[in-house]
Automatic annotation (TrEMBL):
Protein name, UniProt field: TRI36 ligase
InterPro entries (alphabetical): B30.2/SPRY (IPR001870), B30.2/SPRY_sf (IPR043136), Bbox_C (IPR003649), ConA-like_dom_sf (IPR013320), COS_domain (IPR017903), E3_ligase_FN3/SPRY (IPR050617), FN3_dom (IPR003961), FN3_sf (IPR036116)
Organism: Aegotheles bennettii
Chain's gene name: Trim36
Compartments where located: Cytoplasm, Cytoskeleton
Residue ranges annotated for the Fibronectin type-III domain, each copy included: 399-492
Family (UniProt): Belongs to the TRIM/RBCC family.
Domain of life: Eukaryota
Domain named B box-type: residues: 187-229
Entry GO terms, CC: acrosomal vesicle; microtubule
Amino acid sequence: KVAIKGIERELICPACKELFTHPLILPCQHSVCHKCVKEILFAFEDSFADGGSESSNQSSPRIKISSSSMDRIDRISRSGIKRNSLTPKSSLFPCPGCQRDIDLGERGINGLFRNFTLETIVERYRQAARAAIAIMCDFCKPPPQESTKSCMDCSASYCNECFKIHHPWGTVKAQHEYVGPTTNFRPKILMCPEHEMERVNMYCEICRRPVCHLCKLGGCHANHRVTTMSTAYKTLKEKLSKDIEYLISKESQVKGHITQLDFLLKETECNSERAKEEALHSFEKLSHVLEEKKSAALRAIEVSKNLRLEKLQTQAEEYQGLLENNGLVGYAQEVLKETDPSCFVQTAKQLHVRIQKATESLKSFRPAAETTFEDFVVDIAKQEEILGDLSFHSNGLEIPEINKEQSRMYSKALISWECPGKTDSADVYVLEYHKLNGEEESATWQEMEVCSKSKIISDLDDDSSYAFRVRGYKGSICSPWSQEVILRTPPAPVFSFLFDDKCGYNSEHLLLNPRRTSVESRAGFPLLLGSERMQVGCYTTLDYIIGDTGIAKGKHFWAFRVEAFSYLVKVGVVSSNKIQKLFHNTHDVTSPRYEQDSGHDSGSEDAFFDSLQPFTLVTLGMKKFFIPTTPAAPKDPASRILPLPPCLGICLDCDKGKVGFYDADCMECLYECEMDCSGIMYPAFALMGSAAIHLEEAVTAKYGEYHDDI
């Protein structure tokens, strides 16, 4: 038989940390005092009304809500949901037992069952704890007598005399059930909280709670699997009995584990003290080194100070001697009083040399020593950084490496890393980043804790470079920092659009994916069929497609990828008032019958060709990027051909009338030109032959989750 006093831990409410009082069973099967549930829900209402949880926590001194629960209350309160503050009607309840948000349903507290079994056990525990404290009769005239019985039907306690008076022989009350003196009165029949006049007679196996027949017929349990209460009682009691018997049979094993845990507790205490001593010794050693360095630095400054003071003092005394009737001048004045020429000449020669030196020093005065001690400034920037990284030995914890190929810098920054051993040796990672600025000598690192191996960072400045680094933590042990990786943000905010499948879209030659983020040219086969009727020449045309969203003002950036097998692709922007020219351009520049070169190098052909273009496009193809022919472009054709970047970007500045083409991986500008932005500008693309273009997707939280799965 288990002693009542040995189960006190199971009788403590997780909210108030006291013995349960009228406990309610939550949908998660944890029990909480009825008063605690109300106070926690009222804390919700206070947080919605006051915009925080501080005041609500102070207004309920009895309840001890954990910080994680209060964080969830704050999170829900910031969601902007309006509540009625008269009664707690929140459907979400932060369970203090499992630390999860539990949905109480529409009825809230009224839909919860009282845990009468737990309440009875708590009452037995209280009686065992206060055996000397008597329960008084509820009906005696003052002074009341000690009760001898408690009526479960009347929910009251009686002495012998009062019980006979209120339960006379031969009446209905004489049939009431009575027990020994108690303060715990429980109903004989458990009623349904949703249908108050119905008793519960079934058990829902899905919700794991008793229900009545009305709940099964038309309530929220209509489609749930239910069983009779007697069957559920028998099944659960058999399972619980078997589990208890199994635990009791393993008593020796449990005692062995307890002994082992006691040993581990003592060993942990000893090892922690030893670790403290080693850490203290290390810091004392480091402090001793600092003390020696400090003493040496102060000594050097003191020696330099004394030497400089001595030089300056000597120089000051020399200049003091240049004053009238003082020092050198006074001595010279006395020598001038000598009347004997031979004696005067004998003394005046050396004196004249000294006077000349004094005169020259007076004309070009320089202090004998510097007053500043700039050479004695201790540079501790590197040491401070090293001390900032001071931690326990990594003990084999692998240094993570940032994967440049999987990391992206677009609408947001996606930073991914991995461990060389491909194992999750760290429990958590710390990612740090800062903006690179040449004017600042030291930058402040922004820090964030990450449980996965990737992180999305937003709110970064446009056209800026950032340095990233990451380290792993396993308990209090951390790995060294990874090698810093520098990524650059786009030169302008990212512009999102899809391919337009209506305006000028040629479905016979171009194939769009369902999301309209990729387009592929399939013009080869229709062209092949049409070539049967062609005997001379080869007439091919570009198939154009534009974005479904236009730009009227501001500076914007978008990126895309061109498949390596693409033969010919043109990309750029087109004005709304020139779209018709784009799709109805009559000049077939690829036909051999069209010859734009007249045979001389006047440049008029290039000018004529450029004047025909109603838009600004650059040519890509065969893994090459071709810089357009302009007066400012290099004359050598080979110097105008660049390798095609894996990801290409376009930056349109409508305010300045400029468009730039970028290597989107490193955000390097490959080509920039001016253009007329008077109308609404649309992204434009053209494909010929076998080619494909994929728009770059914006970095979102969902993208990061998908990236982690990969």
